[in-house]
Write a structure and sequence with these properties.
It contains 7 helices and 10 strands. Strands 1-8-9-10-6-7-2 form a 7-stranded antiparallel sheet. A 3-stranded antiparallel sheet has the order 3-4-5, with helices on one face. The protein has one domain. The chain has about 240 residues and is of the alpha+beta class. The longest helix is centred in the N-terminal third of the chain and has 14 residues.
Length: about 240
């Protein structure tokens, strides 16, 4: 188990959260770098090398959207302490990541702390068609790919049909250049960031895990990006 903690939760995530309460955020605020960057990225590299089939998925239909999300990220990264050249990115921890445009989500997985999920509209619903998901919280990527939003959230008890409709409207309504964000927060028995299987949660657990989740619409492909920045802190 990798034991990686932030010093504290961001101020905006220290209160209570409600599903699916959302707020607007700045156009470039769907990616962030914090004090756990180097440690989280080392763990991500380990997972991408040793468990790639479990943490990375891309359908043929998502090829253009995956390329576009990398393009959008490269425009944001210099403001976060990265140096971006035509073929390589120098990261805040000093690593140099080659820009593999044939594997954009793999490249993203080596650049940013966020997990990146791509959802595309099929009929009336958004479907998960690609993702780099190194830090899942009680779910497996293999169980969710090519499924719509309501299927992705099974078996979350509070995710009923009413919530499902509201979330689908949210994904339909997010506008280019006007991303949204929300957060969740739960207590866990373990601090491991990679938790694909159900682990114990509850009010007396020692670790607080909070995800800052951003929703971004891509201008060219019209796909929706769901980015997840994971924080874990020890209570007390």
């Amino acid at each position: 188990m990798s034991f990686i903690l932030q010093d504290a939760l961001p101020a905006a995530q220290q209160g209570e959260s409600a599903l699916p309460g959302v707020s607007p955020c700045a156009p470039d605020d769907w990616l962030r770098v914090d004090e756990a960057y180097a440690a989280q990225m080392a763990y991500r590299s380990e997972l991408l090398a040793g468990r790639r089939e479990a943490v990375l998925y891309q359908s043929d239909a998502a090829r253009d959207a995956a390329a576009e999300v990398l393009e959008q990220a490269l425009a944001v990264l210099p403001k976060l302490g990265f140096s971006v050249a035509s073929d390589v990115v120098t990261c805040p921890d000093g690593r140099k990541v080659a820009l593999d445009l044939e594997s954009p989500l793999l490249t993203m997985g080596h650049l940013v702390q966020e997990d990146i999920c791509i959802l595309q509209k099929r009929g009336d619903e958004h479907v998960l068609t690609a993702a780099v998901l190194c830090f899942p919280a009680n779910w497996r990527l293999a169980d969710k790919v090519e499924r719509p939003l309501i299927g992705i959230h099974e078996p979350v008890e509070e995710y009923d049909e009413n919530i499902a409709r509201r979330v689908q409207r949210l994904f339909d309504g997010v506008r280019v250049g006007r991303p949204l964000w929300r957060f969740n927060k739960l207590r866990y028995a373990e601090a491991d960031l990679h938790q694909p299987r159900r682990r114990a949660t509850g009010p007396d657990m020692p670790f607080i895990r909070s995800e800052r989740q951003s929703i971004l619409r891509l201008p060219r492909t019209d796909a929706v990006v769901f980015s997840i920045h994971t924080h874990v802190v020890r209570e007390g």
